[in-house]
Specification:
single chain, Rossmann fold, 19 helices, Elongation Factor Tu (Ef-tu), domain 3, Arc Repressor Mutant, subunit A
Length: about 800
């Protein structure tokens, strides 16, 4: 059945094609098209006829209105008829309002022009022959009525229509707005196409596009009066102001202000700028009190937004932020390993934490955020930053080592931050552990245990043995409950940059600790001089997240540049972020100019001293901002009297071609800390022979640069005594000079050694030994008890009895 239906469809299609191809169908279509064209043409003619009828009716209506107006004018003002038969030559000019006739018996109007009715339009008579428009008149008068001696054209004058005499006021009333009188408008104005189109007299149904251009007319400009109000007090929000603006502000004319300035000896114009002190003086002279009010900065606007964001009813409990601090290798990261039950320390170079790590853990059903800070001396700034963003600080002290330099520094940072401290005495499982000794050392530095009557909680633990870790976490939660930590998760986010770096594939990456509000993907953030929209966020495990609430550390992508660690972060609208960024850049530029201009004589002296030293230029490339900062500070502390180390660049990321070019130009060493050079940079390094030092441990970098600096020192030598000889006789050899025959009294005398000449117990000078011989043979050295001939360079005054002391110079190794 299906096949049969398909065959039927195919046959029907073929029949339809044959019908369409037949001539009858084509002819019918052509006839229909012709009929359509005829109908359109007929419709167009009807429309034109209809429009012409409408126009004719409209013109007739206008004509009737015009006649009605003329009739009204006639009735309102009586018309004076002038008859020449009753008028004599004596009184022709008696009344100035009378009209006068010319030779064609046509009266003049009041203005001296012909007053003609419509019947005389475009028609003039000269004698008896009228002439139409376009003809040239004949000046030969062939009129039968014309006779010699008589005035031409004088006939009996019939009464004719003349212009009515209307007084000026009435004329202005009738023809106001500069409209022409009806009598002067003889020709009928044809309606424009635009007017016809508006009055539906033109159809646009025939697919015709009708376009009109509006004629611009100059509008009457009305002069506005400047009303000067009395002002007693005005506020100025800029340091300088123009005279014009001051006039508007204090409500006084510009001329008065310029006059007062002239009295003060200041030549000014309306656009001249004056400072606040001058403006205040002028304003007081004019009776106005002028005050200066500093304009609100965008930073202040941001501060107000932050202050008004924390509503009491929206505050909720947040997780505590705990910083782990202490001396290097006292077990800070091992403690975090025990808490997180992961092995992080194996990933750190040399078992030392190189930068801040932030982690979130759950203990006893409550979230705690831990921040691990480096312990060694180079990372002072990072420890201080960690203390400033924390709620509770855990100070880790090894039970076997006790108090160390970085322990004391950590105590100082914790006290300055004003946060509660919990001491974790680690490594109690070691045989040399002494808990009481540690408590005593802490007490000596004003950190007294609660067991000894103080307010500091101390918990003995073993990170590797996992002893008392639960008790330590309980103390942290207890301390957090006492602090009653709260935040508003509904407001815009605010936080601190813990760490920042540049990733080759992702660009600038910043580790943020959200302190208040909720940070979301898509938010516009600003931190320092870095601004941008968040493209992605990741937690400490590298998992992508859409939002992060208070006390949560995340890594964000989307910033314009790598921010400085420790910078405050704010989520704001895009417009405000750009305004704040511009303001910060301007402020930074002013500070640089101020610092450059405020150089003292002492600074110049020290700078001159530094310029006299040899320069060791260094370019630092690090993996994260904190490490870069710590490495720069440590290198700047390496000083000497002969060589100065200059860190000409310190940035985050891989070594690129720009870094290599800079190093080649400045003859600098590139120090790569936990980073490497990209492929293009490697080729350029080989071509330019730039020295690159790679390291993952900060102390190795310091040692390398110290040795390199020492190698640049001027070599220093010490004198090593070798022997002495007595001059027995001095004789002169032709062509050689004076030679001292000497006897070695002590040690040995070597060729090319240094000598002192001593005469009568006093040193005369120091000279190089030029020649050493035994008889006629040159020898390298002469020992004790032998005679020899000695010649000194540039000294010919040796005498018998002089003592020659010999010594060598040995280089001092630093």
């Amino acid at each position: 059945m299906a096949i049969k239906e398909e065959n039927n469809k195919i046959e029907n299609i073929k029949k339809l094609e044959s019908v369409l191809q037949s001539k009858s169908i084509k002819e019918s279509i052509k006839q229909l098209e012709d009929a359509k064209n005829l109908l359109e043409s007929f419709y167009g003619k009807i429309s034109e006829k209809f429009n012409s009828i409408k126009i004719k009716k409209l013109e007739e209506e206008r004509e009737r209105e015009k006649e009605a107006k003329q009739e009204a004018i006639k009735q309102a003002n009586p018309i004076k008829i002038v008859n020449s038969e009753n008028n004599t030559n004596n009184n022709r000019f008696a009344n100035k309002n009378n009209t006068f006739q010319n030779r064609q018996n046509k009266p003049f109007n009041n203005n001296g022009a012909f007053a003609r009715s419509n019947s005389f339009k475009n028609e003039r008579s000269f004698g008896d022959k009228p002439f139409n428009k376009g003809e040239k008149p004949s000046f030969v008068n062939k009129s039968a009525n014309f006779k010699a001696g008589t005035k031409p054209g004088v006939k009996s004058i019939k009464p004719s229509f003349v212009e009515p005499i209307i007084n000026i006021k009435e004329k202005e009333r009738v023809f106001k707005n500069k409209k022409k009188p009806v009598e002067q408008t003889q020709e009928k104005k044809a309606l424009s196409k635009k007017a016809q189109f508006k009055m539906s007299l033109v159809n646009d149904d025939l697919n015709e596009t009708v376009k009109y251009r509006r004629v611009k007319t100059k509008k009457d400009v009305k002069e506005t009066e400047h009303i000067i109000t009395t002002i007693e007090k005005a506020i100025m929000d800029t340091e300088n102001i123009t005279v014009k603006d001051l006039s508007e502000k204090i409500g006084k004319p510009v001329a008065e202000i310029v006059k007062k300035l002239f009295v003060l000896g200041i030549m000014s114009t309306i656009n001249s700028s004056i400072d606040f002190d001058t403006a205040e003086l002028v304003s007081n002279e004019l009776g106005v009190t002028l005050e200066y009010k500093k304009p609100e900065t965008f930073e202040e606007k941001l501060s107000k937004i932050i202050e008004n964001s924390d509503e009491e009813e929206k505050l909720t409990k947040r997780a505590p932020v705990v910083t782990v601090m202490g001396h290097v290798d006292h077990g800070k990261t091992s403690l975090l390993d025990a808490i997180r039950k992961t092995n992080v320390i194996s990933g750190e170079a040399g078992g030392i934490t190189q930068h801040i790590g932030a982690y979130t853990v759950k203990a006893n059903g409550q979230m705690i955020t831990f921040i691990d800070t480096p312990g060694h001396a180079a990372f002072t700034a990072m420890r201080e930053r960690g203390a400033n963003i924390t709620d509770v600080a855990i100070l880790v002290v090894a039970a076997d080592d006790g108090i160390m330099p970085q322990t004391l520094e950590a105590i100082k940072h914790i006290k300055n931050a004003g946060v509660p401290m919990i001491v974790a005495i680690n490594k109690i499982d070691k045989p040399t552990a002494n808990i009481d000794k540690v408590k005593q050392q802490l007490a000596d530095h004003d950190v007294l245990s609660d067991e000894w009557g103080g307010d500091t909680i101390m918990v003995p633990i073993s990170a590797k043995g996992n002893q008392n870790i639960d008790k330590l976490l309980e103390m942290v939660i207890l301390q957090a409950d006492v602090l009653d930590l709260k935040a508003n998760p509904e407001r815009k986010a605010m936080g601190t940059v813990i760490e920042a770096k540049i990733d080759k594939g992702k660009g600038p990456v910043a580790t943020i600790l959200v302190q208040n509000g909720t940070l979301k993907v898509g938010d516009t953030i600003i931190t320092g001089l870095a601004v941008g929209r968040i493209r992605a966020m990741f937690d400490e495990n590298g998992k992508s997240v859409k939002s992060a609430g208070p006390s949560v550390p995340v890594s964000v992508l989307g910033l314009s540049e790598v921010p400085q660690a420790g910078d405050t972060l704010h989520a704001v609208d895009e417009k405000l972020s750009k305004q704040i960024l511009e303001e910060r850049k301007t402020k930074l530029q002013r500070e640089r100019v101020s610092n450059a201009s405020g150089v003292s004589a002492e600074d110049l002296f020290h700078k001159a001293e530094d310029n006299m030293k040899k320069q060791l230029n260094v370019i630092i490339k690090a993996d994260v901002q904190g490490s870069c900062e710590a490495l720069t500070d440590s290198i700047n502390e390496i000083t000497s009297d002969e060589v100065k180390i200059n860190v000409i660049s310190h940035t985050v990321g891989h070594v690129n071609e720009t870094d290599v070019t800079l190093a080649s130009t400045a003859n600098a060493i590139i120090v790569c800390f936990n980073t490497k050079a990209d492929n293009k940079a490697k080729d350029l390094i080989d071509r330019n022979k730039v020295e690159v030092y790679y390291s993952r441990v900060l102390y190795d970098v310091i040692d390398f640069l110290t040795e390199r600096m020492k190698s640049m020192f001027e070599p220093k030598y010490k004198e090593v005594y070798t022997g002495k000889a007595e001059v027995r006789m001095v004789y002169k050899i032709t062509g050689v000079g004076f030679v001292a025959g000497s006897y070695v009294l002590d040690g040995k005398i070597s060729r090319n050694c240094k000598t002192y000449v001593i005469r009568n117990g006093e040193t005369i000078g120091s000279y190089n030994l030029e020649s050493l011989k035994i008889r006629k043979d040159d020898v390298k050295e002469v020992g004790y008890g032998f005679e020899c001939g000695i010649r000194l360079a540039k000294f010919e005054e040796l005498q018998a009895g002089d003592i020659i002391e010999a010594y060598n110079l040995e280089k001092i190794v630093f």
